[in-house]
Amino acid sequence: MKFSYLGLCIASLAACSDTAVEPRPPGATVYDASVRKLQLEKRGGGLAGDPRPDVVCSSNVAKYTLTTAGHQLAWDYCQEITTGDTTTRTRKAGARALEDAEWAALEPKLSTLVVSGATDCGADKVEQAVVVTTGLGDVEYGDDFYACRDRTKPYIVGDALDAVLGALRALADQ
Hints:
This protein is α+β, with helices and mostly antiparallel strands. Helix content is 23%, strand content 33%. The chain has a single domain (23-173), classed as Mago nashi protein, CATH 3.30.1560. Strand 3 and strand 4 (86-97) form a beta hairpin.
């Protein structure tokens, strides 16, 4: 049987594409020079639960995508405005390049996204996650607030995840 060099290379790449990217070990930051993109999400749930089906959007659901090349931030979240007894909700989506000063202030917060070794659980927080993309692929890390649910998954220290989500929301609101 005869194989071409190109065919062998393509077959090797196809085999490698099914290989899962290993998560970082507990105590390690997930943000370093190899990161191309971070997608941080609030996925709903928590003690308050999600709003009625007739509500426009939920403040428990949001997605922020941070691309390191060009320091791009994209967002999609629900903005709540309460006036007296009335709360209105509006979905906000957009994108922009962060200014150098904004990026410089954000990077130390990103470095606090550390893999957790926690194994306990809470029961009243919005479910959150971060997907880290490098040249090797994607790894999803959950919020360690719910670390007892599935010990086969990697988790991020929840307080750091909360802080970065808050910083990205503030940048999106500008």
